[in-house]
User: Fold these one by one.
Assistant:
Number 1:
Amino acid sequence: MIKIYLFLITFFVLLTNLVAQTNERHCPLNINESNYKDLIQSKGNTVTSRSGTKYIPVVFHIVYRTDEQNVSEAQIQSQLDALNNDFNKKNENREIIRNDDLAIEANLDIHFYLAETDESGRPTNGITRTKTDIRNIGDYYEDGDVKIKHDFLGGKDAWNPNRFLNVWVCETELLGFSSFPGANAFDEMGVVVNYASFGTIATDYKYDGYNGGHVLTHELGHFLGLLHIWGFEEECFYDDNIDDTPNQSIAYLECPFGTPSTCGSIDMTYNFMDYTPDNCIAMFTKGQKEVMLNTLEFYYPSLPTEQPDSVTPNDNFNILNQVTVYPTLVDNNLFVKGINDFEYQLIDTKGVVLKTENAHSNIIDLANLSSGVYYLVLKVEQTRKVTKFVKL
Ligand SMILES: [Zn+2]
């Protein structure tokens, strides 16, 4: 088995493709079909030795040209929350999944967390910030090197990809793009996301429909070995070679009506690996999960997946899902049903934290707040719940 993988790695290293999701809906992919098929089939026979919940440390490299691009910690946290929801079947838009597909919906059981120590072992918040003068730095190369991923090209060097999942957040004409297993230089392994389609709490998103935090989920699908759901080309002849994703011949650029079909079966338009807008993508399949976990096992064997002391288990980190915050249009009081001892933050639409307080009641008095749109972030231990509301 190892020989097969060495062969595949060698093959992929020869390629320089990046897998991308663009605001123009063009996503180039140059992987050879027969080799990819071998990859999928051989991986399908393997069993991951790292069972149970996996905890992956993430470093976010914020490379900004303007203040707006220098996204806030609250925005970063909202992205991390969305990611953890998506990878644990906790995303709120799961209701769009048809009953027939619930049986094959996968819980990846992966928990991403902000790195707590840097490469030298020093404490860190898992965020780097780098000022650049280069417009759309995410789109440029120098002698084949991706500028955003290198200090000397005006970007930011990766932290050791054997130990961290690197995510660069920057200005780019794409929504995001990812390295593909074995296909990119070691120091360029990781995901790039447009600051304007990153996180869930800004209201000034450049790209309507991509503010649900799922762009990073889609790109991590590529990072973990997934193709788009239609496979290599948008034709029925091509497939992603994963058994439980239906064959599909087109990319959906808008939320579809009804149950569209292009290759004799109902298209899974809400799969995270389609192009559908954020509110209309909601799941990975069990077949995709198998590929992703095996990719983790064989391509990123050194990436830590152990639970760090400070991170609570998956089972607990979403206890706030049981909590309801209402109303959406607030006169004076916001009510928090299901809990009455928690910390909360009040955040404006720019991501600025206006207030942090410990509450011992389920009523939050907002009488003095000026009119506008805000976010309430509830915190219990490592758990967070973000709710948007309008103060009248
Ligand atoms: Zn893509």
Number 2:
Amino acid sequence: MFGFLKKVGSYSREAVDAAKYLVQGLAVTFDHMRRRPVTVQYPYEKLIPSERYRGRIHYEFDKCIACEVCVRVCPINLPVVDWVMNKETKKKELLNYSIDFGVCIFCGNCVEYCPTNCLSMTEEYELASFDRHNLNYDNVALGRLPTNVTSDPSVQPLREFAYLPKGAIDPHELPRNTPRAGKLPSEVLESINASTSTEKATNDHNEIKQKTE
Ligand code: SF4
Ligand code: SF4
């Protein structure tokens, strides 16, 4: 009898859970039914990639120590580290470094494990090419600074749905006084100059104070 009651209890619990999951799933469906399709007029408008978007890899040649950790942790041993041993200094001499983005799966393992942080993932996703061999980037191509949707004056950056204020669905319909997402290069320069002059003024003030004491 006790066993039977236990089975009934467990069955009821599972039935309640199933109903709960069903309602949760339908809530997502009904939430989407309220939304309208949003058209992004690419390439004049572009969505801002998510914060941890894994795009084209950026590489700093000067920081690389040719340890080949990136090759060992890569699931397909993709990065090519071209180095020779300098017999005089008994140190590795890095000649070239390349990653083929036609093969890379953008897992980010190489970036995660690089001991000198010379690799980083950028938000650059426009890698289309007519020839797949053009996707094999050498250290010069990898060292190019990435394009940035928020700092390109020729592009209207649009926030993705997850980054819109509560209740907003279409990024085009944000109020006119909403600040532009991200800063333009000129604005970045202005803020750097402003912070440098404030820092200088503070230092001067501290120096004068120390001399008078
Ligand atoms: S793990 Fe980093 S430092 Fe080592 S070879 Fe790769 S890129 Fe260079
Ligand atoms: S992102 Fe992943 S697949 Fe691409 S080179 Fe790095 S470890 Fe290899």
